Each structure stands twice: as structure tokens, then as C-alpha cells.
Amino acid sequence: MGVEICVEGLTKSFGHQVIWQDVSLTLPAGEVSVMLGPSGTGKSVFLKTLVGLLRPDRGSVKVAGRDITKLREHDLYEVRKLFGVLFQDGALFGSMNLYDNIAFPLREHTRKSESEIRRIVLEKMDMVGLIGAEEKLPGAISGGMRKRAGLARALVLDPEIILFDEPDSGLDPVRVAYLNQLIVDLNAQIDATFLIVTHDIASARQVPDNIGLLFRRELVMFGPREQLLTSDEPVVRQFLNGRMQGPIGMAEEKDAAQVQQELAQLGDSAHPDTPGSREITPRLLPGPGITRPPRWQAIAGREAELRRKEVTGA
Question: Is 297 exposed, middle or buried (0-12, 13-18, 19+ CB in 10 A)?
């Protein structure tokens, strides 16, 4: 079962550069959350702060009720055992085959026998569809396979929280679709708390229970998927629809007057923006034979109620 992460008033800067400030949100236990935002808004810094690799200037990060910003190194090490992390490039050791890469955390952090390690490694490789690739080196496989190997390694210690740092980077749309399905299936099977940092709008529309958006050093919104997909917040609408008109500029240099002018030029088409752009995209379902988590019934009910209100205008 996943654990809740409660973030309160989190602020982080490097020197005089404020990355983000006063960020507060709760990642519900066992749910999938996505964090969006333009490049350079500190999404990866946020992940590193959650796992205690970076210390914030202010604020708290409570993991299973323990504020990791106040823990000593030994206690922080214990809390980190709750986490698994999939880095952008998979972070595999180039000189090790996939089996040894995935076995590495078990050999490093446990006293399990090699027979037990083998059972766990093959189980996780099976979960991500890599059985038969044990002897392959990272340099001899595709980017998608490297991501899956990195995910298998993140799973071997049975974490209750899994962080994904742009898992879709460097992958073509077909591999991203396969990876998204794998994420949904895994969450349904192991019930861990997932947080995904991504730029991929299709993934953000289909995969998570919750979506957040970082922009101009602030958390603009964080909430249930259907709340963000139907939001009237200009920066949310601009990002989800991938258009130039709105607060986000090439270097985030737009002033308020320019933004108002651009949104006015969109005219009535901005409400809704473009056909279907405010619709609640159908959720990606777990594959055949995988039971849907109980929370999905409540989520489906909320989404159905929103669709009813859009149709009736109530």
C-alpha cells in the first residue's frame, strides 16, 4: 500500500534564484499524480526535494507522517527505503547487464541470498516485460527497454512511493503509449503512490488521478485530473492545449497586457478553446486480467457527474 506525502509551504532557491515558493499539496496514498510545467520550472528539483536529495529553504515534506526536512542522515536513509526512482535515462550501469543492474539495489542494501535475489529480479523483469533480456547490456538495447529496466530496478525493494522523472523523454509516441500502459498496470498491481514529472500532455490526460502545474515559481493548481482538464485557468488551458496564446512565453517573458490581448484575439473559441479540448479524456484502463483499484469507481462517478453538468449546463 502506498503512503501519503504532504507538502506544506515548500520553498527552494539556489543563491538568489528562486526555483519555486510556498508549494503546498498532498499526494494521496496509492494514487498516480502528474506534475506538469514548462521547461525550467523546477519539476526535477521538486522530485529531488521530496526524496531528501535536496534540502528546501522553508517548508515541510511529510512522508508517512515524518518530516524528512528535519531528519538526521540515518533516519532519512530509512525513509528513502520507501522510495523507488526512475531517472530520465534509466541511470543504468553501462558495464553491467540488465540482470545485474536490476539486482544492484538488493545486493547493496539487503542481505538476501543470490537465489532470493534471482527470484525477485526475474519477478520484476517479468512485470515490465523484460524476461529473456537478462544478459543484454544497456548500450545494446532501445531507449524504451532501458526505461523498463530502470523501472524494474526501482521496483526491486518493493517501494511504497515511485517517482518518475520524465519517463517519456527520448521515446517515440508508440513507446510512450506502452510505458503509460505499464505505469497504469503497475499501479493497479502494487498500489504504490506514483508521482510522474512529464511534458507529455497525452500522458497527463490519460494516466493520472491528480495533476499539478508549476509556473513562474508557483504551483498554479493541483487536484483531481478532471478538475485540471476542465479548468478555466489561462496557463492550465494554454499548457494542456499546447498553444502559443497565453501566459507562457518562449522565455516566460510575457506581461499581463500581452496575455490579455492574446486571449482576447482567441475570441469565443477560447471558451471552450478548441473542439474537445475541455473534454475529460477517457482514462487509460489496466490491461486484461488486472483488477481496477477500488478508488476508480469513485473517480468514474465524479467524471460522469462533470460530463452530465456540461451537457445540461447545470
Answer: exposed
Q: Does domain 5-225 have CATH number 3.40.50.300?
A: yes
Please compute Rg for the chain using Cα positions: 20
256 sits in which H/E element: helix 256-266
Q: Which residue has the cell 497504469?
A: 184
Domain boundaries, the chain: 5-225
Range of weakest confidence among 8-17, 212-221, 267-276: 267-276
For residue 163, the cross-strand partners are: 85, 195
The whole-number average pLDDT for the span 98-109 is 95
Region 275-292: what's the mean pLDDT?
78
Q: How far apart are the C-alpha atoms of 6 and 146, rounded to whole Å?
A: 31
C-alpha 284/C-alpha 208 separation (Å) is 9
Helices and strands counted in the chain (H then E): 11, 10
In which band, very low, low, confident or very high, does the pLDDT at 277 lie, cut at 50, 70 and 90? Answer: low
Going by their DSSP bridges, the two strands 218-224 and 210-215 should be labelled as antiparallel
Please state the φ and ψ torsions of residue 211, each to the nearest 5 degrees: -130, 140
What nine digits make up the cell of 143? Answer: 531507449
> What's the grid cell of residue 69?
526536512
| Distance in angstroms (rounded) separating the CA atoms of residues 138 and 74 | 32
For the chain, give the percent of residues with pLDDT over 90.
Answer: 58
